[in-house]
Design goal:
Among the domains are: 1-103, 3-Layer(aba) Sandwich (Rossmann fold), CATH 3.40.50.620; 162-299, 3-Layer(aba) Sandwich (Rossmann fold). α6 crosses α7. It is globular, with a radius of gyration of 21 Å. 32% of the residues are buried. The strands form 3 sheets. It has a 5-stranded parallel sheet. It has 15 helices and 9 strands. 41% of the residues lie in helices and 12% in strands. The two termini are 40 Å apart. Residues 1-115, 183-273 form the Cytidyltransferase-like domain.
Length: 347
């Protein structure tokens, strides 16, 4: 949702947003192993509602040639630094030409921090649990090189505001003739499996209005165990709202799909993917009511990617990721040092 927020801000600066997505090879060269494959990433970015078009295989260094090729007036990046493998600013050329704009980085989230939560089996990131010492110790060494910490890679806490939700929400009410479809789950680490599922659900009706029910952290933890969900309820809300197939999100939906909920939202269809449905606390089927009404449907997304698999990918590459983050941090700190020196020389 940090990436989505950047795309939202970029889209607001113009009329048409083209998003360049790097290949696996480019990322591995400049940053370290990517978590998702390029095909997965192309599809993920395309599913974000502010994106008009993607440019697959975009070069890591943005040049005027690339901007002209896609007929772009300017490019947008967050206010953090991106450096090439040899420490150069990747936006130098377009900045000099005056075809660069900047947007604010989303406070409180980074890929680095999420990777950290996956590697650490604590629950401190859940929305109602006091931060535990393990996690604090971990965030210190995860986003920190030997010389202190970088404000970009470092970890800070995400604070949800109503404004953020408004910016991400569609604000559209269901219209007469819309098919109101309800789906529920954790939607943790919003990924291509979720996108494929929502896209399939979206295709079930002429005019779909999809409401996604998100379970609270404690509920997800009850049926998923370990340190799930990796993202807390606030973070999951924004991630799901950024998807172009979703019209509305219920924040903290009840685990059992009750007749109250179905009547309140005037739901025509309830869908679930092929993942296992864990019984409710009392052992009952959470989809009993929609099944009784004959409005329940299983939908096969055709994707086998799950949140578990992503975590496994991370753990497999754990050492590479830790090395990557420390290198990234060291590069950023070096730039900060240089910037400070320049400032001092000016005075």
């Amino acid at each position: 949702y940090g990436h989505s927020n950047q795309l939202r801000q970029a889209r607001a600066m113009g009329d048409y947003l083209i998003v360049g997505v790097h290949t696996d090879e480019e990322i591995a060269k400049h940053k370290g192993p990517p978590v998702f494959t390029q095909e997965e990433r192309y599809k993920m970015v395309q599913a974000i509602k502010w994106v008009d078009e993607i440019a697959p295989g975009a070069p890591y260094v943005t040049t005027l040639e690339t901007l002209d090729k896609y007929n772009c007036d300017f490019c947008v990046h967050g206010d953090d630094i991106t450096l090439t493998i040899d420490g150069k600013d990747t936006y130098e050329e377009v900045k000099t030409a005056g075809r660069y704009r900047e947007c604010k980085r989303t406070q409180g989230v980074s890929t680095t921090d999420l990777v950290g939560r996956m590697l650490l089996m604590t629950k401190a990131h859940h929305s109602n649990i006091d931060e535990d010492l393990d996690y604090r110790k971990h965030t210190d060494n995860f986003g920190k090189g030997p010389k202190g910490r970088s404000p970009w890679t470092g970890v800070s806490q995400f604070l949800q505001t109503s404004q953020k939700i408004i910016q991400f929400a569609s604000g559209k009410e269901p219209q007469p003739g819309d098919t109101i479809i309800y789906v529920a789950g954790a939607f943790d680490l919003f990924h291509i499996g979720h996108v494929d599922f929502l896209e399939k659900v979206h295709q079930l009706a002429e005019r779909p209005y999809i409401i996604a029910g998100l379970h609270f952290d404690q509920e997800v933890n009850r049926y998923k165990g370990k340190n799930y969900p990796i993202m807390n309820i606030h973070e999951r809300t924004l991630s799901v709202l950024a998807c172009r197939y979703v019209s509305e999100v219920v924040i903290g939906a009840p685990y059992a799909v009750t007749s109250d909920l179905l009547d309140h939202f005037r739901v025509t269809l309830v869908c679930h993917g092929m993942t296992e449905v864990v019984p409710d606390k009392d052992g009952s089927d959470p989809y009993e009511e929609p099944k009784r009404r004959g409005i329940f449907q299983l939908v096969d997304s055709g994707s086998n990617l799950t949140t578990d698999l992503i975590v496994q990918r991370i753990i497999k590459n754990r050492l590479e990721f830790e090395a990557r983050n420390q290198k990234k941090e060291a590069k950023e700190l070096a730039v900060l040092e240089a910037m400070k020196k320049l400032e001092e020389e000016k005075h």
